[in-house]
Amino acid sequence: MVIVTLYLTARYFLTPQSFGLYGWYRAVALDEIAARPTTYAGQKACDECHSEVVQRLAKYEHKTVSCESCHGTGQAHADNPDAPVTKLTYSHCVRCHEADPARPTWLKQVKSKEHYTGQRCTECHIPHQPNEVP
Predict the structure, then answer these.
(1) Which residues contact 62 (CB under 8 A, 6 or more apart)?
(2) What is the pTM of this model?
């Protein structure tokens, strides 16, 4: 009986007031998330300055992948073009292309320990034109 009383008392004092108002979470969390600064710029912002790359990309397999999936959040770069964008690394490529039986068979996959020979992926592959060879 003491344990139940302690549990109910702790629950009463530790449960936020807005919990359960809209569902199984704190309702004020929505306001907190909305108040955070925007970090993603979106494809439209990339297209404003890099339209030739976006148009070229539209012809290849990566056409459905947003720029920020590989290059990282771009709001700082969109606001200030001198701000650097993330350079592609090996880990960016294997995030999607590492062999995994759970991935769809149409997605080109590699076993990185066998395929990767120490170079950067971009030495043999052009990310914006994956079918082309540099």
Answers:
(1) 127, 128, 130
(2) 0.66
